[in-house]
Design brief:
Pfam families: Choline_bind_3. InterPro entries: Cell_wall/Cho-bd_repeat (IPR018337). It comes from Streptococcus pneumoniae. By secondary structure, the protein is mainly beta. The radius of gyration is 13 Å and the shape is elongated. It is built from no helices and 8 strands. Strands 1-2 form a two-stranded antiparallel sheet. The protein has a two-stranded antiparallel ribbon with strand order 3-4. The chain has a two-stranded antiparallel ribbon with strand order 5-6.
Length: 80
């Protein structure tokens, strides 16, 4: 199988080679973050390289918006 897979109530993305994607993944204009250590899709608030991000329940990265009073820029980074 390839593409998005739900395993144990967590989402993963398997590339066409069958390899599990990790890190940042773009599908169309939408970005997702797949845990660098185990590949599970992040939702809610998470931190990468010192920056905070927010992903909706769908996994889509929130960009150019405010979530819970916190502004997220065009890269999805929380602007303090």
């Amino acid at each position: 199988k390839t593409g998005w897979q739900n395993l144990g109530n967590k989402w993963y993305y398997l590339r066409s080679s069958g390899a599990m994607a990790t890190g940042w993944y773009q599908e169309g204009s939408t970005w997702y973050y797949l845990n660098a250590s185990n590949g599970d899709m992040k939702t809610g608030w998470f931190q990468v390289n010192g920056n905070w991000y927010y992903a909706y329940d769908s996994g889509a990265l929130a960009v150019n918006t405010t979530v819970g009073g916190y502004y997220l820029n065009y890269n999805g980074e929380w602007v303090k």
